[in-house]
Design a protein that fits this description.
The protein is α/β, with parallel strands linked by helices. It is built from 6 helices and 6 strands; from the N terminus they run αβαβαβαβαβαβ. Helix 6 links the parallel strand 5 and strand 6. Helix 5 packs parallel to helix 6. The two termini are 19 Å apart.
Length: 174
């Protein structure tokens, strides 16, 4: 049994599915997806690029924002180490835009978005990846209540606008 708060959702998903996680960091939730959901294919997308201009471009490390590229390089290595023996896990070391162009529309059963935490980036990810979701597939997102430095709920707004615009009935955010 997983201690991850999101695992109860993963337990309900169909096995042998095709799953993409956009924004992987160290692969900790990726391994939960793999172990709990048992997908036929798990695609992991992350560019692991440090950007000092993006607040929250990665989870905090020891209570601090990651300070340089070394943190990202280590996170990337941690992810590769977790999946080095898994042939049905494909790791794409590239940005979301380039990665999404590798897949046809209606390809994935499940899409989990947890990449850059800005309104613009989340809106872009939603626009890029949602067409890749199969009919009756499920879209997931993380950090729904992420607050910007000015205390606005930018991710919440991005998701709500997209869900309303596309009349999405089935979605899940954490």
């Amino acid at each position: 049994i997983s201690s991850d708060k999101r695992a109860y959702i993963l337990e309900q998903l169909k096995k042998k599915s095709i799953f993409v996680e956009v924004g992987v960091w160290k692969g900790d939730f990726s391994i939960e997806i793999w172990n709990v959901s048992r997908p036929k294919l798990l695609v992991l997308v992350d560019s692991w690029k440090f950007n000092e201009n993006v607040r929250g471009c990665a989870p905090q490390v020891n209570g601090e924002e990651p300070l340089n590229q070394e943190f990202f390089d280590q996170a990337k290595q941690d992810t590769y180490n977790k999946f080095q023996k898994e042939k049905n896990v494909k790791i794409l070391d590239m940005n979301s835009t380039n990665a999404s162009s590798n897949y046809e529309d209606y390809y994935f059963d499940y899409i989990y978005l947890d990449a850059e935490h800005t309104y613009k980036a989340v809106t872009n990810d939603l626009n890029l990846w949602y067409p890749k979701l199969k009919k009756n597939g499920l879209l997931f997102g993380d950090d729904y209540y992420w607050r910007e430095e000015d205390d606005t709920l930018s991710l919440h707004i991005a998701y709500q606008e997209f869900i309303k615009k596309n009349n999405i009935k089935k979605w899940c955010v954490f």
